[in-house]
Amino acid sequence: MISFEQLRDHLMANRSYRRFDHSRPISPDILSALVELTRYCPSGRNLQPLRYRIVWKDEECDAIFPALKWAGYYTDWDGPSPEERPVAYLVQCLDADLAADCLCDDGLQLEAITLGAATRDIHGVIIKAFNPDMIAKALNLPPRYKPRYVLALGYPAETVIIEDTDGSTSADIRYHHDDLGRHVVPKRPLSELIIS
Q1: Could you tell me which residues come within 8 angstroms of residue 17 by beta carbon, excluding any fewer than 6 positions away?
Q2: Taking all residues of the chain, what is their mean pLDDT, rounded to a whole number?
Q3: pLDDT surpasses 90 at 168
Q4: At 126, phi and psi to the nearest 5?
Q5: pLDDT at 167
Q6: How many CB atoms sit inside 10 A of residue 28's CB?
Q7: How far, in Å, are 36, 55, 69, 113, 135 from residue 66 at the CA level?
Q8: Contact status, residue 157 vs residue 85, Cβ threshold 8 Å
Q9: In terms of DSSP bridges, do strands 160-164 and 183-187 run parallel, antiparallel, or are they unpaired?
Q10: Cα–Cα nearest to 172, from 181, 160, 180, 163
């Protein structure tokens, strides 16, 4: 069993990364093992309606990359350069034959996957801003599978750090790059999260 402090440290290390070492592939076996973690997550009504399309081949990675939006706060950035692109993706899909929605299963499963990946020094970014029709066509998905999220994965080629905001409700929470090129993620302090 891990301690509370170990869990907190692991959550703090589990950041969104958007630039990767493209020379280091991730095997389909590792990707399958990450998807297996979702089996142990709670599921609304225990329907378990989410499915994953594993993407690791270069031609498929290249086909879905143009369908993705990379960082809303970086308005002048279209995503990583070819040598820093993800080496794999997990496309989370709702099986519409099982359910019309997945309640909160999607977030629970994505957190399990990213935490599991971080134990292997693999990181990624969960992408909701994408063209689902382009993804479905590029991956030849049957119509019953509706893409919900795309998880881009790889070994990081950037440093991500957490920075506390000043505690005001108007604090700037936009992630940004600092003078050293690190990806800085502002987080609200605990005092702002608890309603008194």
Answers
A1: 123, 124, 125, 154, 156, 158, 160, 183
A2: 96
A3: no
A4: -85, 120
A5: 84
A6: 13
A7: 28, 15, 8, 23, 9
A8: no
A9: parallel
A10: 163
Structure tokens at 48: 């378990």
Burial class (CB in 10 A: 0-12, 13-18, 19+), 114: buried
The contacts of residue 25 (CB under 8 Å, 6+ apart) are 56, 87, 88
In total, the chain counts a number of residues equal to: 196
Assessment of whether the complete model's pTM goes beyond 0.85: yes
Q: Read off the tokens for 189.
A: 């302090």
d(CA 153, CA 89): 6
The whole-angstrom separation of Cα 63 and Cα 85 is 12
The two structure tokens encoding residue 132: 């689902």
Per-residue pLDDT tens over the stretch 86-131: 999 999 999 999 999 999 999 999 999 999 999 999 999 999 999 9
